[in-house]
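Example 3.2
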Amino acid sequence: MTKKKVYVGGDLLTFGSQMLRDWEKQQVENLGFDIHSAKDDKEINDKSNQTVESNNDLPNKIFKKDTDGMVDSDILIFDVANTSVGTTAEIGQWAMIHELCEYTLDPFLTKLASKPIFFHSSDIRDTDIPETGHNRSHSYNAYLVGCCNRCNEKGIQTWDEIIEELKQIV
C-alpha cells in the first residue's frame, strides 16, 4: 500500500521557521504519511554547491521543483502568513486552480482541485477575542484569506484541527 504524500508549505527563511517546518513534518509523518518538504531539497537549498550560473537560475528551479512537489502530493498544508511571499504565491496558485474549475471541465484541473488542502497560522497573535480599530493584534491580507477560503471552506484552521482531519484521511 502506497502512503499518501503531504506537501508541507510555509516560510523557510529563518532558523525558527525551519524548525517549525521540521516539527510539522514529524507530526505528519507520525500519522503515517510521506512528506514533500522544499526545505529538504538539497539541490536548491545547499548553497555550497551552487555556481554563479546555477545560483542565477535558482528562482526558476525553485518554482519548478516546488510546483512539481505540490502537483505530485496528495494533500497540501500551508502555514498562512502575510510575510511569507513564496507560500502566499503557492496558495494563490491553488486558489486559481479552484477558480478555473468553475469555467472549464478540464480533467487535470479537476483532479488537482480535488486534493485536500489545509491552512493554518503559526502566528502567536491569533485570538478569538474581539478587537477593533487600530488595537488589533494583527490582520491577514483579505485576498490571501479569500484564497484560503476558495480552496477549503474552513479557511484557516488550527494545527490541531488539521491533524485530526489527517487522522481521518490516513
